[in-house]
UniProtKB/TrEMBL annotation:
It is a lipid-anchor. It is found in: Cell outer membrane. Plays a critical role in the incorporation of lipoproteins in the outer membrane after they are released by the LolA protein. This is Outer-membrane lipoprotein LolB. Residues 1-27 form the signal peptide. GO terms for biological process: lipoprotein localization to outer membrane; protein transport. Pfam families: LolB (PF03550). It comes from Proteus hauseri ATCC 700826. The keyword Calcium does not apply. InterPro entries: LolA/LolB/LppX, OM_lipoprot_LolB. GO terms for cellular component: cell outer membrane. Belongs to the LolB family. The keyword Membrane applies.
Amino acid sequence: MRSRFSPTKLLRLLPLTVLLLSACNLNQINTQGSGSNNDAQWQERQQALKKISQYETRGAFAYIEQSHKVYARFYWQDRDEDRYRLLLTNPLGTTELDLNVMPSVIEVTDNKGKKYYSDDPVEMIYQLTGMVIPLKNLRAWLIGLPGDATIFELDAHHLLKSVTWPAPEGDWIITYQAYDSNITPNLPQRLELRQGDRLIKLKMDNWDIQQ
């Protein structure tokens, strides 16, 4: 039988002290300087990124909001606008949250294997965990596209440097801290999403893309 939201928070993630969200990488490109939003290199880069039909990435995840802190490993699998997956695991490798968005159903499995269903994945995650994650645009932000945002800044390498996304609860500010130069096109390696005192940090360890 399908379960609805439970008021009890399902995540009890242990602190993951081995997360090095600010660690340097010899292959990274740091976002510095400025570039034009409508120059030819940016237009070419957008076209290259939009050709990515499917992608997977995994790495370190941190959610910080006042006294609410979550540290985890994450896995993101993106197949289409209405077909993607977000998996969070604790330091022991045990599943804590598994979100599966599919055309006909949105399903979340908690750390006890209990399944929940809804038509709103953002609200579902909030009700179950207390975390606010802007999933709709996160699909684009992860690979370095502005998504629905019209306010953004480029760096000197014509890579996305920052994005501002208006929301009723306050603007989301996305900051790109480094890109992986070993991937063509170059993809983000570290980024932060901030909304007021709410902060999400992502560090991508590797990428698997299909064009």
